[in-house]
Design goal:
The complex is a heterotrimer of chains A (381), B (327) and C (511).
Chain A (H helix, E strand, L loop, with lengths): L2 H5 L6 E5 L5 H27 L3 H13 L2 H26 L7 H18 L3 E3 L6 E3 L4 H30 L3 H23 L28 H20 L1 H11 L1 H6 L4 H28 L10 H11 L4 H24 L6 H21 E5 L7
Antiparallel strand pairs in A: 1-4, 2-3
Helix pairs in contact in A: 2-14, 3-13, 4-8, 4-9, 4-11, 4-12, 4-13, 5-6, 5-7, 5-11, 5-12, 6-7, 6-11, 8-9, 9-11, 12-13, 13-14
Chain B lengths: L1 H30 L7 H22 L5 H29 L4 H26 L9 H8 L9 H7 L4 H19 L1 H11 L1 H6 L4 H27 L12 H11 L4 H20 L5 H25 L20
Chain C lengths: L3 E12 L2 E12 L2 E6 L6 H8 L7 E6 L2 E3 L4 H6 L2 E4 L11 H5 L11 H15 L14 H14 L4 E5 L7 H16 L3 E6 L2 H7 L2 E6 L2 E7 L5 H9 L17 E11 L5 E11 L2 E6 L6 H9 L6 E7 L6 E3 L5 H6 L4 E4 L3 H5 L6 H9 L11 H13 L16 H14 L4 E5 L7 H16 L3 E5 L3 H7 L2 E6 L2 E7 L5 H9 L9
Parallel strand pairs in C: 3-8, 3-9, 6-7, 7-8, 13-18, 13-19, 16-17, 17-18
Antiparallel strand pairs in C: 1-2, 1-4, 4-5, 9-10, 11-12, 11-14, 14-15, 19-20
Helix pairs in contact in C: 12-13, 12-14, 13-14, 14-15
The chains are: A mainly alpha (381), B mainly alpha (327), C alpha/beta (511).
């Protein structure tokens, strides 16, 4: 090696070290800066596309999310559904089990609910006008049945990869990812079976008797969804923080060796936790069918299974924080949607903005976990 | 009967080509230890970038030149995919962000970009209707002039646009580089054990960046093939579907070997359209057939994890970021 | 002796608030073997990592052949002809020996595995290695892996070789072979630095000895002009009689009876081979041996973490008088039997404690199942945490501080405190004073002695023979998974134990 080459070695200009800990408010400030930076980039983008005043853009976004009572309730509903799935993936992620299969677990949950509705669907009584329909089961029977079926379906979908992970260490992120598409095809299959005309669209089920539909609550269509997810949020917070099972999840996630050392059956915890995870995904599927769409489709989860992973991760798996992060994501999506409608843009702009926001927030974690030092030239001598 | 079989093989190759680009790109990426779940998004961006480049060229030219009709979409596709992978690389390699979360966000972002520009491009140029690039599409579809004269064989194997062959060549070259060169050895070491690679004097960051970016650009070609050759220069929103995820499945199915991924891609491509070729299949059973690629992938994943053969495992540090001064 | 190969001037390095190296000055000559001596945690490895480009010094200069050098990456280190053989081998498991050896070399022309194998063979012949270049690393023994590491740096033309505790994992025969190779490399004009804390190796191998203590450079002496006493003094500070108190055991009764246990690793290596002994109440049983001789497996087998192929572990319950076989029971089943077994594992933050949890939650590791509800009870653990913080003088901002932010000694106090709080009848501690300062070490000795007086059967795995001899009532020596002897702590001589440690064959072995 020539000495010339050696002479060119220079000291690294930036030196990166891991931080010990950070005062909590600094972390908050860094995250706030990231969000503001993301909003600036987003608005710059929108201004570029629409040539509008950025302030107008933001007022339009707020208008689009909170503008009317109806919009506000839709905002709450969207938050609730995203939050519900985020809650579902959280225990698995806390255990460092990368469950990328929430989308599929929600789908099979929705499918199970729709199946119950379909097989006990309303029947027309006679041909005389006005047409009269009757439901074979009362809602008091049908709705709990749908809930249980959805949870069971979600559990099956989540627990299969969990068993293979627990016993053979099968890579769970790839396994769960594939399960999503199996679920999608399964939904497509059943729709084809149920809808004989080949239109591949399942219409609203039981439109006349509203059998299997969650009733209104507080005079709101989505009342029950919001209430149930609210209760789930509190329950998940308590489960993770104060229950023995939640404690076991933390220990397994932090160190499997320690778990072994104190006699936790790691395999059992993995499987049990994925049962919880799958069950909540099933509930989300149930709410999407019984409390929202009254039908099922391949796209009923609409990618929320993936967005939820980001929401849960951004909130550091804290259910309380997840309320905020899912609000942030839904607000961006709704706001961007409103802009798109008003200015005749494509609705996909909301995906772009969501992406940008998430990039900024995950990027800023670096500055919370690491310290960047500018190296000062040491003294001669 | 023979005609049907050859037509099926022909269709399987056409369907398999975007998957092959995606799978080769993802293999190269994963060999560096990066699990890039943003590949589906990158493929969308690769497609739309090609469309944008081609559209602008066709829009401002009276008489499009065939070479430029290929070159401009090709370069703009590479640029688009590169920007996408740079976002991923900067976040996961430099800022050490979680790879799964970053990848998923990138896919959301990329599909958003694809559909947004796909839906709004014409509006920006005050046109209406849907995107259709006749000249570029024709240029990409161009096949060997004598292919049709070679009978069934020629029709089945030689009638494709050049990207089909490029996909195979890239996979073979990737296989050669990974297994027979120092660069490949070093790259595999980075994905297996970055601390070891680092102490052996390999610039881990550089290798990760290069592998991820090159892998992303190769995957982008998959999107380009789809919009230019397969659909002949047209864009439909979400038209590319879930092929990006299928490409990730192929990586597992091919146990991280680019040569295997050629066969696997055509096999999956075949499965993708198998339902069309099975006579008398009901609409619902078609959907079950479409489930096959994923089920097969799951089975492969299970089998390799049970057999535990060291050479068949995913790169050991897949999904983990590397920090030298970890203590 | 040749010219100065490498010189360090005022090197300092900190990790967060921990000072790993402070103002270290050191030079090494061509054609010499320099021992870098120091206790565990004295900063030897950190210092060498800065020469090999793994870390970058915060302050100070490195001079190579008299010119200032900037080593900001391992690649730079190679360019300066520096090669380090790490304690934890840096090899890619699925690669062959030859592939590992050429890893990272870029200016060598075509990648021709045959030509590479030939060159590897030449190096092997020159220094007397025996290696198959095509063998995969995951099929190799520890000693073979080490050979690959050494060839790897020689292949790169290394002039300065650094070996981090190379003998810790070797048998005596392998060690002798290694030393022969090191000497032949020295005679070839290479500068060799060997990191160790084994005095007899230092004296038999090296030309000079440099000593570090708590990250500070103490001095360098010629091996010919020094002896164990002086080196020990340099290493530990002043010459101190350890003065660990040792009471007579009171009414010792058999508590734990280990009969002919054996276990085999996944690769088929015998980790424990027909081990039998008895631990008695009110007594400290020491276990001595070279690192990795089966100590960990033995303790984990008793704790219910290691599957056994043969033998039994009998626990004599002092309350009921029952005898229970603990073999192949899980830690939970063992506790349910009413066996009060406490275990301070070697890996404190990786096994005994959870680094990211606070002290209170770490207290709960042993007790979280208590209570009938599905909820955890945090009141008692909180009280326990505060009690341990007070009683053992744990330095921490509060009981809700994550334990990873505590210093090594305080981490150990938390762990030992928790294990003792369960009022065990058997207490096992693996290397409980490793990396601790003198004061913390004595705190731990006192705690063990207190337990002994309470009638606990204490099993203490240690590495410092002086401590073992002063603390333990009996010392059991383990070598390659076998018990090579049990001696009385009051009369044992260090040399005697040393010989037992390196003895691997039993005279009565006629299997």
């Amino acid at each position: 090696m020539s000495s010339k080459r050696l002479a060119q070695h220079s000291e690294p200009l930036l030196h990166i070290t891991k931080r010990d800990a950070m005062v909590w408010y600094k972390g908050v400030i860094i995250r706030a800066i990231a969000i503001v930076a993301a909003l600036i980039v987003c608005s710059a983008l929108i201004v570029l596309l629409t040539k509008l005043n950025p302030l107008d853009v933001y007022s339009e976004m707020i208008e689009g999310s909170f503008g009317t009572e109806r919009k506000f309730w839709i905002l709450l509903q969207n938050i609730a559904m995203l939050l519900c799935i985020s809650l579902a993936v959280t225990p698995a992620f806390k255990m460092k089990f990368w469950n990328l299969g929430a989308e599929g677990q929600v789908l099979v949950g929705a499918l199970a609910s729709a199946a119950c509705m379909f097989y006990f669907k309303e029947v027309r009584m006679g041909d005389t006008l006005p047409l009269v329909y009757e439901a074979p089961l009362s809602n008091a029977v049908l709705i709990p049945m749908m809930l249980v079926a959805s949870m069971a379906a979600g559990i099956i979908w989540a627990v299969i990869p969990a068993i293979f992970k627990a016993i053979w260490g099968t890579n769970e992120s790839l396994f769960t990812l594939m399960m999503n598409y199996v679920a999608m095809q399964l939904v497509a299959f059943f729709i084809m079976v149920w809808v004989p005309n080949g239109s591949s669209v399942m219409g609203i089920i039981n439109p006349n008797t509203e059998s299997g539909w969650l009733p209104e609550l507080f005079g709101q269509k989505y009342g029950f969804n919001i209430l149930i997810v609210g209760l789930l949020t509190v329950a998940m917070y308590i489960y993770l923080k104060y229950s023995k099972q939640g404690y076991e999840i933390s220990v397994v996630g932090e160190s499997e060796n320690t778990a072994r050392y104190i006699g936790i059956n790691v395999k059992k915890v993995i499987i049990r936790t994925l049962i919880v995870s799958g069950a909540i995904c099933g509930i989300a599927g149930f709410l999407l069918v019984s409390g929202t769409n009254y039908t099922v489709s391949k796209d009923i989860a609409g990618g929320m299974g993936f967005t939820a992973i980001m929401v849960a991760w951004l909130a550091k798996f804290n259910p309380g924080m997840m309320v905020i992060t899912s609000f942030l994501v839904v607000f961006m999506q709704r706001g961007a949607g409103a802009i798109a409608t008003t200015f005749g843009l494509n609705q996909s702009v909301s995906d772009i903005l969501t992406g940008i926001i998430i990039f900024f927030i995950i990027g800023c974690e670096f500055f919370i976990n690491y310290k960047v030092n500018l190296r000062t030239k040491h003294k001669e001598g | 009967m023979l005609n049907t079989i050859f037509a099926f093989i022909n269709a399987a190759i056409i369907q398999g080509t975007p998957l092959l680009f995606g799978a080769t790109g993802e293999i190269i990426t994963e060999k560096s230890g990066n699990l890039n779940l943003g590949i589906p998004g990158i493929m969308y961006v690769g497609g739309i970038s090609g469309i944008i480049g081609g559209y602008i060229y066709e829009h401002y030219t009276e008489d499009p030149n065939t070479a430029l009709c290929i070159l401009i979409p090709l370069l703009s596709c590479m640029l688009g995919s590169l920007i996408m992978t740079l976002i991923y690389s900067f976040l996961t390699i430099t800022l050490r962000a979680n790879q799964n979360v970053t990848g998923l966000a990138l896919t959301t972002f990329g599909i958003g970009i694809g559909n947004f520009f796909g839906g709004s491009l014409l509006k920006f140029f005050n046109e209406s209707g849907s995107i259709s690039l006749m000249d570029c599409g024709a240029a990409f579809k161009m096949s060997l002039p004598f292919a049709d004269d070679l009978g069934l064989f020629g029709k089945t194997f030689l009638s494709f646009g050049f990207l089909v062959y490029l996909a195979v060549i890239i996979a073979l070259v990737a296989s050669f580089i990974l297994n027979k060169t120092r660069v490949g050895l070093n790259l595999r070491a980075v994905g297996e054990n970055p601390a070891t690679a680092d102490s052996a004097g390999i610039n881990v960051t550089k290798y990760k960046y290069f592998a991820t970016c090159i892998g992303g650009m190769i995957a982008g070609f998959g999107g380009l093939y789809f919009v230019m050759d397969y659909t002949g220069g047209a864009w439909t929103n979400n038209g590319f579907g879930d092929r990006g995820w299928l490409a990730i499945a192929i990586v597992i199915f091919a146990i991280w070997k680019p040569k295997m991924s050629i066969l696997a891609s055509y096999l999956f491509g075949g499965l993708y359209i198998l339902c069309v070729y099975i006579p008398g299949l009901s609409a619902s059973n078609k959907e079950l057939i479409n489930m096959l690629p994923y089920v097969v992938t799951i089975l492969v994943l299970i089998i390799i994890s049970i057999r535990k053969k060291r050479e068949n495992q995913p790169p050991q540090s897949l999904g983990l970021s590397y920090f030298r001064e970890e203590r | 002796m040749g010219n100065v190969a490498i010189e360090l001037r005022n090197i300092s390095k900190r990790f967060g608030s921990v000072v790993a190296n402070k103002d270290v000055n050191l030079s090494v000559y061509n054609g010499e073997i320099l021992s870098l001596l120091g206790e565990n945690g004295s900063g030897k490895t950190t210092l060498m990592n800065m020469i090999s480009g793994i870390y970058f010094p915060d302050e100070g200069q490195i001079l190579i052949d008299g010119k200032e050098a900037v080593i900001s990456s391992p690649k730079d280190a190679f360019d300066y002809k520096i090669g380090m053989i790490h304690q934890h081998f840096k090899l890619v498991d699925v690669f062959s020996a030859a592939e590992n050896i050429v890893l990272g070399l870029e200016n060598e022309g075509k990648f021709d595995i045959n030509a590479i194998s030939k060159k590897v063979q030449e190096i092997s012949d020159k220094y007397g290695f025996d290696i198959d270049p095509r063998k995969k690393i995951y099929e190799m023994s520890v000693s073979e892996k080490q050979t690959v590491e050494i060839i790897k740096v020689l292949y790169r033309g290394a002039n300065i070789l650094i070996l981090d505790e190379p003998t810790a994992v070797l048998t005596p025969q392998e060690t002798q072979k290694l030393f022969k190779i090191l000497r032949s490399m020295r005679d070839d004009g290479k500068a060799i630095i060997i990191i160790t804390h084994k005095l007899h190796e230092v004296l038999s191998l090296s030309d000079r000895v440099a000593v570090l203590r708590k990250g500070e450079y103490i001095g360098t002496v010629n091996t010919a002009e020094t002896d164990e006493a002086q080196l020990t003094e340099m290493m530990v500070g002043q010459k101190i009689d350890l003065n660990i108190e040792r009471s007579e055991p009171e009414n010792p009764v058999d508590r734990l009876e280990v009969n002919n246990i054996s276990c085999v690793s996944r690769e088929g290596v015998k980790l424990l081979d027909d081990v039998s002994f008895t631990a008695r109440s009110g007594e400290i049983l020491g276990i001595a041996g070279i690192a990795g001789s089966g100590q960990r497996e033995l303790l984990e087998a008793i704790a219910g973490l290691q599957h056994l192929n043969d033998g039994q572990i009998l626990y004599h319950n002092p309350k009921t008088g029952d005898v229970e076989n603990l073999r192949d029971k899980t830690p939970l089943q063992i506790r349910e039997l009413g066996v009060r077994l406490s275990f301070v594992p070697e890996d404190r933050l990786g096994m005994g404690l959870v680094g990211n949890m606070d002290i209170i939650d770490n207290m709960m590791l042993r007790s979280y199942k208590k209570g009938r509800t599905v909820f955890v009870e945090r009141k008692a653990p909180k009280e326990l945490a505060n009690k341990i913080i007070n009683d053992l003088q744990v330095v921490t901002p509060s009981a809700s501080t994550p334990v990873r932010r505590l210093s090594g000694g305080n981490v150990q106090k938390v762990l030992v405190g928790r294990e003792i709080a369960a009022s065990p009848t058997v207490l096992m501690a693996a290397y409980p004073v490793r990396g601790l300062d003198i004061n913390s070490s004595y705190t731990i000795y006192n705690l063990l002695n207190e337990q002994k007086k309470k009638g606990v059967a204490v099993i203490f795995v240690g590495e410092d023979l002086d401590v073992l001899i002063e603390l333990c009532d009996r010392i059991m020596v383990i070598g390659s998974g076998r018990i090579t002897g049990i001696v009385d702590g009051r009369t044992a001589k260090k040399e005697e134990i040393g010989i037992l440690m390196t003895k691997t064959e039993r005279s009565d072995d006629n299997e």
